[in-house]
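User: tokens in, sequence out, please.
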């Protein structure tokens, strides 16, 4: 009797210990994984980028071709990342793969540009789109005041940060809900477009492949705008350690999500062109709202709300995924250790999530966001190309390394070459933004050699730094992970 009671007490103690242990838990199944990818990819891009694709491609037919090719290219890249995600079981996405295949300097530079300008710029852009779609219906047809748009954008960012600090489960459920809402919004756009097309409304597609206005230097910018709208297929790789059965879930979720998004995006653009001439689309500040006013008079007031929620979903996915890269970078010694800590009760990477918040707020309140797509895209695609090149090098050097999912060689090589080609051509197309992006990336080199490669900070600075870290750890109630999850 006593022995049985003692065994139950020991089992109870063990269960309690397992629940209290500080670690990131595997809580993302197939549905949350699919919702995470689709919900992050489908944000403001499909409602903003059609204008950029059309103006740089020069015709309706070529713009639709660009959208389809961007989807195929993104699917190829996603399949490469499915191999990387099942070959290397750590979270961290780009950073981890560059670290494992090409070494610490490229990995640190990826981490550096992600938090210096890529993530704040993308989050600011998406949150401003959220604010614009929430505020503008109340002021139509007059322009909405920019301070109010920025205030609403700030509230959206604050909500997303709070959710991701509070609970991984809550962030995942929020993502699933918002993904269903945004897919409903896109279906709402597609159906009237397809119906009108079936009735013979095809005048905007006639002479669709006029190439008189197409120039070689503009084409990469068309692809950048299209690829921006598809951006986000790599975010599931940021949270590999939190995915249930990643060897099965990651390839399945990536393949299904990207095929779905590609089909939906092409159909949405067909619907746009069914109801709007190319000139009208270029003049529109909010393509989805203009479309709704034409095709969905009864529901035109609902579309801005659905688009705003779509942007919120993309923002949530970004804040869920990107801090995991910082978390892993800090764990590897490439960032201050405080950012590799987890809240002792919430089991969320609280410091890493909170670091992004002031950077996004700063860019929101001071920066001009709408010129940043090309600026951000160069660094993002350059490092993606490096990661897939690293995958090919790793295959050659370590042929016996376990790879539960292996992408065909021709897909990996084609994707890598196309990425480098687009990045190289952008130096010619937009040397100013590309040059700034290069310079900002290279500023990480001296930082790496001064702070990571050789820890040359004066001893007094280190003492102050360690004291501040300790006080922050106490204030935020965070601790290092107690269980290895990779």
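Assistant: Sequence out:
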């Amino acid at each position: 009797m006593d022995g049985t009671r003692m065994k139950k007490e020991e089992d109870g103690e063990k269960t309690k210990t397992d629940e209290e242990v500080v670690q990131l838990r595997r809580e993302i199944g197939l549905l949350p994984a699919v919702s995470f990818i689709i919900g992050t990819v489908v944000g403001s891009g499909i409602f903003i980028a059609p204008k950029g694709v059309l103006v740089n491609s020069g015709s309706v037919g070529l713009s639709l071709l660009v959208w389809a090719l961007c989807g195929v290219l993104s699917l190829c890249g996603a399949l490469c990342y499915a191999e990387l995600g099942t070959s290397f079981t750590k979270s961290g996405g780009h950073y981890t793969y560059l670290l494992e295949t090409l070494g610490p300097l490229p990995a640190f530079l990826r981490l550096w540009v992600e938090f210096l300008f890529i993530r704040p710029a993308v989050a600011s852009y998406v949150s401003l789109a959220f604010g614009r779609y929430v505020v503008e219906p109340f002021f139509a047809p007059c322009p909405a005041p920019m301070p109010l748009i920025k205030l609403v954008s700030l509230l959206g960012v604050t909500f997303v940060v709070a959710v991701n600090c509070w609970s991984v489960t809550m962030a995942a459920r929020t993502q699933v809900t918002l993904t269903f809402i945004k897919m409903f919004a896109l279906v709402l756009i597609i159906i009237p477009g397809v119906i009108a097309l079936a009735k013979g409304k095809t005048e905007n597609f006639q002479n669709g492949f006029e190439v008189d206005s197409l120039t070689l230097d503009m084409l990469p910018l068309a692809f950048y705008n299209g690829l921006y709208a598809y951006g986000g297929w790599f975010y599931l790789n940021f949270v590999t350690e939190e995915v249930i059965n990643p060897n099965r879930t990651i390839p399945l979720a990536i393949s299904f999500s990207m095929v779905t998004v590609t089909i939906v995006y092409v159909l949405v653009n067909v619907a746009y062109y069914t109801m709007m001439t190319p000139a009208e689309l270029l003049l529109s500040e909010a393509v989805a709202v203009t479309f709704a006013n034409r095709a969905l008079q009864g529901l035109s007031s609902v579309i801005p709300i659905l688009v705003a929620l779509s942007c919120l979903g993309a923002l949530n996915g970004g804040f869920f995924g990107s801090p995991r890269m910082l978390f892993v970078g800090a764990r590897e010694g490439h960032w201050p250790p405080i950012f590799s800590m987890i809240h002792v009760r919430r089991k969320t990477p609280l410091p890493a999530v909170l670091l992004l918040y002031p950077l996004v707020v700063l860019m929101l309140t001071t920066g001009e966001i709408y010129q940043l797509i090309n600026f951000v895209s160069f660094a993002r695609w350059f490092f993606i190309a490096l990661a897939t090149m690293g995958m090919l090098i790793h295959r050659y050097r370590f042929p016996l390394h376990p790879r539960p999912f292996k992408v065909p060689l021709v897909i990996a090589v084609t994707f890598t070459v196309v990425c480098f080609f687009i990045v190289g051509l952008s130096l010619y197309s937009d040397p100013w933004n590309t040059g700034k992006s290069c310079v900002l990336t290279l500023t990480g080199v001296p930082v790496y050699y001064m702070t990571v490669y050789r820890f040359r900070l004066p001893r007094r600075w280190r003492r102050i730094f360690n004291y501040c870290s300790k006080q922050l750890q106490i204030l935020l109630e965070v601790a290092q992970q107690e269980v290895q999850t990779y």
